[in-house]
Amino acid sequence: MDLDQLAQTAAAMTQPSKGILAADESTGTIKKRFDAIGVESTPDNRRDYRELLFRSTEAMQNHISGVILYDETIRQTAKDGTPLVKLIEQTGAIPGIKVDLGAKPLPFCPGETITEGLDGLRERLTEYSDLGARFAKWRAVIDIGEGIPTWTAVKANAHALARYAALCQEQSVVPIVEPEVLMDGAHDINRCATVTEFVLKAVFQELYEQRVVLEGMVLKPNMVIAGKKSPQQASVDEVAEKTLKVLKRCVPSAVPGIAFLSGGQSDEEATAHLDAMNRIGGVPWRLTFSYGRALQAAPQRAWSGKPENVEAAQRAFAHRARMNGLASMGQWTS
Ligand code: 13P
């Protein structure tokens, strides 16, 4: 493990005015996104789409610090034969890789999941590192509902996250530790705060027990937010205040950076919330974005699978990247 390298990569991933592009949709998830815009999900179409993102020079050079890739993408080449990883590196962004194998039903815990993928992970990390990945991602999924989450599910997922993070650091790959509390339910913001605090406390205890070096990781949490189906939606300021309150209670200041997921928020909400948190400030970590949907929904709509729309899609991506880059410094205005 090279601690200096880990700390340097983590700092670069969360540097001011930049954030992470989560382009690591599994084959199943990208199919859903493509279905929504009427595009067939073939390897070539997936390549063309991701290539257009990585060739968005303005967005990539100025506002994207790193890109999370999926197994297929890290092995793909652009139309002209250049490896996609090289395209990303040429913009100054860092390639990363999703290494979890997805959330599967957790036995005896109805409605809850455990994220799988620890078996053989050391060998897979070696290969990904050889392919150019300098950071990795593992997502644990915690749902809020009646009687859930259970301690059983929270503990099991926190443990898997910590085991994953230790395996990454062993190979000087920065782990993005992503415990996502879903915003799918009808719960209010206070319930999200309670559950998020419970989950983060468990995650940091497990990270400690697995000897993960906090200086060499990035946390990717959900924001503290009301469930989508809740009639009581919180204001931007309330989301920002409650998210920071929970993070301050749970995240040691040794962690260099926090890169939020967007989780189904609208593009503009995701930007406004990040901006509001950075305006409040006074926290020991860099606060930035690691958005999938909130960066890609607009370019996907603009592209719709048509080569003549590539430039419009790149402009749409550049706009969202610029807005979120400003929000990462508390300088965004609507
Ligand atoms: P969203 O921003 O769409 O939530 O995706 C981020 C991510 O990487 C989820 O694992």
TrEMBL record:
Entry-linked InterPro entries: Aldolase_TIM, FBA_I
Database matches in NCBIfam families: FrucBisAld_I
Superkingdom of this protein's organism: Bacteria
Any one Gene Ontology BP term: glycolytic process
One GO MF term: fructose-bisphosphate aldolase activity
Pathway(s) annotated for this protein in UniProt: Carbohydrate degradation; glycolysis; D-glyceraldehyde 3-phosphate and glycerone phosphate from D-glucose: step 4/4
This protein's name: Probable fructose-bisphosphate aldolase class 1
Family label: Belongs to the class I fructose-bisphosphate aldolase family.
Keyword Metal-binding among UniProt keywords: no
